[in-house]
Structures are given as structure tokens and as C-alpha cells.
Specification:
- The protein has 233 residues and is of the alpha/beta class.
- It has one domain (2-231): Rossmann fold.
- It has 10 helices and 10 strands.
- The strands form 2 sheets. Strands 6-7-8-3-9-10 form a 6-stranded mixed sheet, sandwiched between helices. A 4-stranded antiparallel sheet has the order 2-1-4-5, covered by helices on one side.
- α3 runs parallel beside α6 (136-148).
């Protein structure tokens, strides 16, 4: 579904990616792991068109480097960014409905609300609340829910457990597995390395902007040398 070949990118004046190649197959959960500053977030920004890149980024035959970010989103590639980036003073309902903005004119554009509420019942209970009044975990649910309103085919998640109470992290990760079960392909960047590798099919390890290892997630999780050298665990 997604293929990157020899992709390099700079972010805030620094070379953040250097010759990165990776693939994501349809229906997979692929994790990208590594220490802070490894280039994981820049990788997702590169795919979604938010940073200038060199190399090839192909999504189902479409060269993503040649089109603008909103066009990438309309193709079905959607990013849930680090920090969530909600509209804090708008209600939960308004944030969700804004997720369907790109499909305005489609009479079924709000149909994904049923899916969002089945994954995250708390959101349905808090429709009238402003997003800024939600807990960190609820805000992450809202950010993922808003992305699902675009009806993505590839959902990219940047640190979805960040700033969330531990008891809600399992709920978020379980929801990601359920989303994959609905036919959505997942590219996951996650600071909770053990948990990410547990739910992923395959994984790539980034170090200073380069892929230093890739393979089955269970193999990377079980490799003690890799865990010490590249993941710091």
C-alpha cells in the first residue's frame, strides 16, 4: 500500500531522515520505533506532505511528493499528530464533524460517527463538552475519532499514548487493533516500545534518521542486543 525508497528530509534546519526505505502492506500494523530524536515524527510528516523530501513516496501508485497535504488526506492517508492538535474551544461533536469537512457534499459524510462511538463510548457521553475539558486519554480518543471521520485507508498515529494515564493506554492500543480489524492499515509511532511491538506485525528501528533494522515485530522485541543498542531498553 505504501512504499518509501531512499527518502531524506530536513526539519527545522536539521537532517532528520537519511535514505529511509520502508513498506507498509495493506491490512498491516507497522510500528516505527527508536529513541527520541530518531526521526520518527518527521517520517510521518514526510508521508503526509508536511516537510520537503527527496526520494520516492508511493501510495497505491500515487506519488505523494507531487501533491499537496489536503490531497494526500483525500486519498485516504490521515495523520493523528503528536500532541493531538484538537480545536480546544470547540465541542467534541464539532471536532468530530470537522473531521468530515473534506467530504462535504457527501450525504453519508457523518456515517463514521457510529464507528467512532462504538470504539470510544466516552466521546458520545461528552458530545457537548469542549475538547479542552477532556482528560488526556479522552483527547486522544477524540483525535483518533476525528481522523476516522475522513474514512482513511492508511491511518498514521504519532505517539498515541503520550500524556495519557496508564489505565487508558490499553484502551487506546486495543482500539488501534480493532481499527485494523475494520480494514484500515496502520503506521504507528509509539513511545511505549514493548506495547507497540506487541500489537504490530512488522517494525522498523530508526536511529539518527536511518533505518538500522527491520523485520517481524516479535523478532525485534525479542532481540536483546537491538533493545539495548537502539531502543534503550
Amino acid at each position: 500500500m505504501l512504499r518509501l525508497e531512499d527518502v531524506s528530509a530536513s526539519y527545522r534546519g536539521l537532517r532528520a531522515l537519511q535514505g529511509v526505505s520502508l513498506e507498509v502492506g495493506k491490512g498491516e500494523i507497522v510500528a516505527v520505533v527508536g529513541a527520541n530524536g530518531a526521526g520518527k515524527s518527521t517520517l510521518l510528516k514526510a508521508i503526509s506532505g508536511q516537510v520537503a523530501t527527496e526520494g520516492a513516496i508511493d501510495f497505491e501508485g500515487q506519488d505523494l511528493r507531487r501533491i499537496r497535504p489536503h490531497q494526500i488526506a483525500r486519498l485516504g492517508v490521515n495523520l493523528v499528530p503528536e500532541g493531538r492538535r484538537l480545536f480546544p474551544r470547540l465541542s467534541v461533536e464539532d471536532n468530530l464533524r470537522l473531521g468530515a469537512y473534506a467530504k462535504r457534499g457527501d450525504p453519508d459524510r457523518f456515517k463514521p460517527l457510529d464507528l467512532v462511538f462504538s470504539l470510544f463510548p466516552r466521546l458520545q457521553e461528552r458530545l457537548a463538552q469542549r475538547a479542552e475539558t477532556l482528560s488526556g486519554g479522552e483527547q486522544q480518543m477524540l483525535a483518533i475519532g476525528r481522523a476516522l471521520m475522513t474514512q482513511p485507508r492508511l491511518l498514521m498515529l504519532d505517539e498515541p499514548s503520550q500524556g495519557i494515564m496508564p489505565r487508558l493506554v490499553d484502551d487506546i492500543l486495543a482500539a488501534i487493533v480493532r481499527i485494523r480489524g475494520l480494514g484500515v492499515t496502520i503506521l504507528l509511532v509509539e513511545q511505549r516500545l514493548a506495547e507497540a511491538l506487541e500489537i504490530a506485525d512488522r517494525a522498523y528501528v530508526l536511529q539518527t534518521g536511518r533505518v538500522v533494522m527491520s523485520g517481524a515485530a516479535r523478532d525485534i522485541a525479542g532481540n536483546a542486543d537491538v533493545r539495548r543498542a537502539y531502543l534503550g531498553i
